[in-house]
Amino acid sequence: MKTAILGAGVSGMALARFLVERGRPITDLHLFEAAPVAGGLCQSKTVDGYTYDVAGGHILFSKDAAAMQWMKDQAGGDDAFEKRDRNTKIRFEDKWVHYPFENGLGDLPIQANYDCLEGYVRAWHERTARDTAAPADFASWIRWRFGDGIADHFMAPYNAKIWKRPLDQITSEWVAGRVPDAPVADVLKAAIGMRTEGYTHQALFYYPKNGGFQAITDGLYEGLKAQVRLSTVVESVRQVGERYSVNGEDFDAVVSTLPLNVLPDIVEGMPAGPAEAMRTLEFNSVTCILLALDRAEHPNLSWIYLPHDVQGPANRVTYMSNYATTNAPAGKTSLMCEITSDGKLPYPGAEAEKQTIAGLIHAGLMREEELLFTDRSSSKYAYIVYDHGFSERKRTALEYLDSVGVVPLGRFGKYEYHNSDQCVIEARKLADQLAGQAVKG
Ligand SMILES: Cc1cc2nc3c(=O)[nH]c(=O)nc-3n(C[C@H](O)[C@H](O)[C@H](O)COP(=O)(O)OP(=O)(O)OC[C@H]3O[C@@H](n4cnc5c(N)ncnc54)[C@H](O)[C@@H]3O)c2cc1C
């Protein structure tokens, strides 16, 4: 079974490694990767001793202990990882507010605290007493779930920064497990100053001691080196009877982790319906700005959220040098700011960078004289946008791939809001399935 795996991000490489673990000869597997480096969205970059993750600060955590251990083992095992407590906050005006926001109401200025609590209780009463159904659009869902105070003070402005479109154009189908969901008692306690915790499954996380998050995909790549064709763009996939031709070379099977959006230009003979469905799946890009600082220490923070426009265009700032001491030279620190854009070029550039720095200075997060240099990276496919009609378009796209036997995998390969651990779990499932088929065959 000569198999082409399109894309050498974590999904493609994890699949290859799992197949080898299940007895597939490594020489059967051929990975095509457009970039000169494997790793995809898990890549990191080091400039003058400062390391940052190019597609937003990445942490390793998982509900699946075996998958997480497997990922650690790719990069040298437990000893190769820092273990960190997640300490995330929202910068609200000049205050630090505990995250998730509804667990931090007591940290707010008193009027905002009252607005949020009153709105939360009102919304909770509406939901429970009247048993109202969850609205399908995200803007209404926020108010239904959290009330007007939390919507106006945090959720609406923060999400407007990320999604870059009116929130009523987005559906609420992605929120389960993604948007924290505190019980009413916790919110009442939080508002009067009793500490409560939300989102506890992410209370601890791991990060490679050296090389940024990319150390994990570097480890995967190490074991597959001879099979990964770097700087090799997949330009054509053609079904030829029971087999496939990829860039003119014959294969028995094809697994694609490429964004569905690019497949209409690659898969020959795709009918107009699925092609249109794939092309119109919406996504946001992310631009990450490293700020290398001449500052010896940071507060003990993992990352923070910036909801206000005056804080600049970045929605999230990662305390990159707190993840691993080697992420900055000795005695120095770094910040990494994420700015989303609507998937169209140009990406945020020098002007956005200036506004980001001004916003951080305004928010009291750094001083101008501390800045040594900046670096900027953009990733085109970063966030899936769940606009109306998304599910139908995705179903049409995947049904077509199924009909031609091209197997989709990965965050944009299947348009699933996966973190890297979930990519690994999906790759493991697929490897089990393919290994089972090979045994039957
Ligand atoms: C802002 C942000 C923060 C995140 N934070 C975390 C986190 O904290 N923890 C975590 O675990 N995960 C996190 N993730 C998710 C994680 O990055 C992804 O789930 C994972 O990297 C996706 O891997 P993949 O292999 O499916 O896709 P990708 O990494 O996108 O891989 C696809 C590969 O295909 C290649 N390719 C595309 N077109 C072609 C072509 N025509 N020919 C050949 N190759 C091609 C690309 O170059 C790429 O290498 C985050 C993601 C983002 C955007």
From TrEMBL:
Indicate the transmembrane segments per the record. Answer: none
Pfam families associated with the record: Amino_oxidase
Domain Amine oxidase, chain residue ranges per copy? 10-340
Q: What are the recorded GO MF terms, alphabetically?
A: flavin adenine dinucleotide binding; oxidoreductase activity; UDP-galactopyranose mutase activity
Extract the Gene3D superfamilies matched here. FAD/NAD(P)-binding domain (3.50.50.60)
This entry carries the following GO cellular component terms, namely: cytosol
Task: Tell me the InterPro entries matching this sequence.
Answer: Amino_oxidase, FAD/NAD-bd_sf
The domain of life for this entry's organism is: Bacteria
User: What is this protein's name?
Assistant: Amine oxidase domain-containing protein
